[in-house]
């Protein structure tokens, strides 16, 4: 399957939001995906964008995307790319489009002198795990991803972090 990979454009935002919602459904979490076109547009094209993206088109239609941001290794002292999400529509999988998106990110790393490209994959997602392994991707051993969100985040960030006083501005 032939597709054209390029940087995401403002006109792609709606298509990328739709892909993200498809990915959430595939990952059995459709009810947790709250992304809107306005939010994604701001993240990608706002005053200080911290999110970047590539899309793949087939016949003028966006059928896949890769959203990423810069990471930093304090041990290596170098940036890398962290792939937040990679998705190719179900009807277009298996034809090399996901590989083309990852190749574009690998090329970004090479061009910028970044020594690594990293991502996470759901432990039950055997098709994706097999795909990533086929490209030479390796799981990082000995690490578990943690998340602080909702009430726990508010409690910790609201000054209830164990008796230490936060500095105030002013």
From TrEMBL:
Residue intervals passing through the bilayer:
none
User: Keyword Coiled coil, does the record have it?
Assistant: yes
Ranges where the N-acetyltransferase domain occurs: 3-159
Q: Which superkingdom is the protein from?
A: Bacteria
Supply the SUPFAM superfamilies for this chain: Acyl-CoA N-acyltransferases (Nat) (SSF55729)
What would be an example GO MF term here? N-acetyltransferase activity
What family does the entry list?
Belongs to the acetyltransferase family.
Annotated protein name in UniProt? GNAT family N-acetyltransferase
| The species this protein was found in | Actinokineospora bangkokensis
Taxonomic lineage: Bacteria, Bacillati, Actinomycetota, Actinomycetes, Pseudonocardiales
